[in-house]
Specification:
- 30% of the residues lie in helices and 17% in strands.
- It is of the alpha/beta class.
- The strands form 2 sheets. It has a 7-stranded parallel β-sheet, covered by helices on one side. It has a 3-stranded antiparallel β-sheet with strand order 4-8-7, with helices on one face.
Amino acid sequence: MNIKIFETSEQLDNYAAELYVNLIASKPNAVLGMATGSTPIGIYDKIIESYKNKKVSFSGVTTYNLDEYVGLTPDNDQSYAYFMNKHLFSHIDIPQEQTHLPNGIAENMEEECRRYDALIASSPADIQLLGLGHNGHIGFNEPDDNLSFGTHIVKLQEETRDANARFFSSIEEVPTHALTMGVGSIMKAKTILLVVRGSDKARIVKEALTGPITTKVPASLLQTHQQVIVLLDREAGRMLG
């Protein structure tokens, strides 16, 4: 596990964006695992800058997102499909048909999970971007006695809904369920890039990276992956000795 701590968010964002740009330069048909939320926005901004400066093309790239809320249409401004278009896809030259997210409004959710798993299996990610929830979740894989290998429907814990309520008008508007890539699918990525910011994440960062490997802290399973890069700002990494 390669852990890097940065003094500023801009330094972190530049480093992460360079990882993506360099990967695509060496492999134009790279498969990228994408994430949403506030954590990757600065990284996406830097990636867009590199594209506009003609350092990289996404025309041969394929992307797979971790998750999507159940019940939100792609044009809902809180859906992750909307987020990805707003913060990345609409600013680069990636063909829409090469971008993939779970369908949160599928008529048959179990069938949708199988469809998404088949897509992921056909193109394992070269790099998978992850954030880290306050309770240790990755994607929407919440702490539990058992974790699902593949894509599945998850009931969001209240702690997770509370954390995401800042993006909605009220907690009542936050969906109660989501479709998420399973831990097994995440762990198939050749490289995992975990990005965490803020002092409020310091405790769970330490627990996930140095504590016991347990399904009660899903991110702790990353300790078993052969190629994990962890990027932290100074506050998120303050408890790591």
